[in-house]
Amino acid sequence: MVIMMAGSRTTFVMSKVFGAAVVSAAVALVGSLGAWGILVSTGLLDGRLWVPGLTVLILGRSAAVVAWGVVGTCTVLTTRSQTAAITLILTVPFVAETAVRTLARQVGGTLEGVTRLLPFASIDALVPVPPGSTLFEEPVNSPETACTVVGCFLALLLTASTRRA
After folding, report:
1. What count of other Cβ atoms lies within 10 Å of the Cβ of residue 96?
2. Is 142 left (phi over 0), alpha (psi -120 to 50) or beta?
3. CA neighbours within 13 Å on the CB side: how many for 146?
4. 0.85 surpassed by pTM
5. How many whole angstroms separate alpha carbon 104 and alpha carbon 109?
């Protein structure tokens, strides 16, 4: 009986974690690719321009959102300490953002007219982006981080709202 209950709880947690990953990935990809599509369709960005740094940002940010959705959901479902859950959930996105920006900076590339990238972009003049550039440096309270935060909290709300006592 105890084994069946433990199995049931594990299945419940895994289903919620899977739900968090799916919702988080959808939010990240739609936000990133949607913003890029808008820039291309309005002529603000050349659609033929696809550089490694941009790919890293899209895939890296998507992975970061998925990771946060999974970590946050696991934390909400398994911990009894609200302080620990809140600390972990608020720490992960900033660590992930820093890692993604650092990797994009190392990859580099050349971007036309983009100074801040996905999912919200500011337009500027032609900007070469050599490896090691500080173009991907941005404040932690940037619109990009805000979008990531909103997406992850949506995932957490959708997947952890039915938490069992």
Report:
1. 22
2. beta
3. 6
4. no
5. 9
